[in-house]
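Appendix B.2, paired examples.
Example (i):
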Amino acid sequence: MAFYKSTVTADTVKESGGKFIGKSGIYPVTIKIASVKINEHGARSIDFNVDYEGSNNVLYGLKLDNNDGTPNYQARIFDHLCIIADLVNDQNEIVLADPEIQTHKIGKDQTPTDLSVLTEFTDLEVKVWVKEVYSLYKNELKSKKEIVEFYRADGASASEIVNGTEIGIKLAKDSDPKYCEAVTYKDGLTAEKVAELKKAQSSGRTTAAAAPQPKKNLFA
């Protein structure tokens, strides 16, 4: 049974508007490990260990499925990565084999850990657009780096590859700072409130935030 299968259509590539990846932006990286996680509902997500200018970074939780088994909207981003990696077959489908169990040293302690690795992406050079997202959970500030888009190392987008159009136009548009450096604030947060909460947390204090509490993120 194939791990992943998707048909490439016009909708698939429809465009929407330091050394560490710490803020919103577009970064040239090499994917070292693309590992699959499956939650208690059977929903799959992918973590990417990437090398950025010699430093290891982890981009967590690109979701393929929702908990009810339907495709998550981020599955289209994964389709784009597959197109960039030249994994579309003659039937215009993306069909990936089941992941391979590999042992890698991960985390600060470099603990040997068994991971389910999609080997098709190992050592693949890409550009990745990530976005800072701030939210609240039980009045505690949470932040994550969410993958927005992938581009081929030469700047080609998935739509440009599929449609045979000029390479780099979408990347040039997306690289406008007002797009690529934007930050998402959820749960009533603002830039000012985030700065206040960060200061409070760094000093060991807690600051109540009057905002709705989101449901637990199963992929955090």
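Example (ii):
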Amino acid sequence: MYTPPAYRQEDPAVLHDLIDEFGFATLVTLGPEGPTANHIPMLIDRGEGPYGRLRGHLSKGNPQFLEMRSEVPALAIFQGPHTYVSPNWYPSKQEHGKVVPTWNYVAVHATGPLTVIEDDEGLMRIIDDLTRKHEQNFENPWNISDAPDDYIQRMLKGIIGFEIQIGKLEGKWKMSQNKPKIEDRRGVIEGLNASGNLADGEVAAIMSKILED
């Protein structure tokens, strides 16, 4: 990932927080016919190795399952808040007009060897952990035990689990840090907040925090 110094985020805790919050990644692997990508919910185990470990699963009907190779690193891409930035929001536009549109965004790339998990115990742990994470805020969270055991066992036979031991973790917080004038960055924040769009507000909040720091 192209990451100029101004946009680089290298704090593992911050990167792990983004992965944990959004939890939905593009899994990219390399097979005989080139790269394959699928969109998969994943878990981050922060204490596993220097950069953590990712876990997830996919259907055995997914051809990506047949192309997974431990000797070729896999890439998981997590996308955080992102939005369009209009040149009209820069006060500098009124001064000299030398401004252009751009896109502000947050992204994390996690790369490492992929290991396939096929045993029932390992698969159940992935399913259970994913379920508990995403059900925890509901008043009556669903649990695997709510479904018949024989049904769950049939479902397990149709999936394959995996884990990625992260060997490289990159973060990019592109939030107008390249703008030398604080007024231009504040103008973007005001423009985003005025739009009423949820994603715009999330980007504005990140920009404001960066300015405060």
